[in-house]
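Good morning C.,

I know you're traveling, so I'll keep this short. The sequence:
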Amino acid sequence: MAGHSHSANIAHRKGLVDAKRGKLFSKLCRAIYVAARVGGGDPAANIRLRYAIDKARSFSCPKDNIERSIKKATGELGAENFEEVLYEGYGPGGVAVLCEALTDNRNRTAGELRRAFELAGGNLGGSGCVSYLFNFKGLFVVDPKNAAEEQLMEVALEAGADDVELVEGLYEVTCDPKVFEAVRKALEDAKIPTESAETSYIPTNYVDLDVEAGRKMLKLRDVLDENDDIQNVYANDNIPEEVMAG
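The tokens, ready to paste straight into the viewer:
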């Protein structure tokens, strides 16, 4: 089932890039801005900033956009004021949903999300209502054509990864966020390319949805992705394959 694959959601996001490129660049640059504001504008000394830049580059975000965001954060081009907020709620069928946001107005963002959840047949909840159903992990996705299973397991586990699993034709390497950089470097040194490399909220269990609820959940995801303040959406939805393909 498509919902069980963490990489399926990544692929789904990448598939929407062309249609929403400007909006996506804005979100990626906002993440760069916050990382630089918190930890400084030097990616060599600020791991979080380096991750944000790498992610922006993976989506072909222009270099000028990246540099402008860093200069804004360090005060060279004026200042903005974004804060990180984790919104939690229930989607259709009781699906647990986490939304990572960077917002300059908590009340506005909460109001927009509340309407989005209610239209999908769910509701926005309070802090902690569903986050306990997720583990925060480092996640690397590797195409099997780029690495043999034994090699990948040896490199990843030796660097501190927790697990290597084949999910829907792709290897998913998970690790504690504290060793994310060590695993990333080990894969890089072993010349094993990744389809994606990011920290992610990974569900501890899944909710099986029927076709109708699956369609509502995909619609909710799209509405949340359209929101300028939302950086990432995580959910424990298990959506039927025909809905994902449709």
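Safe travels,
E.
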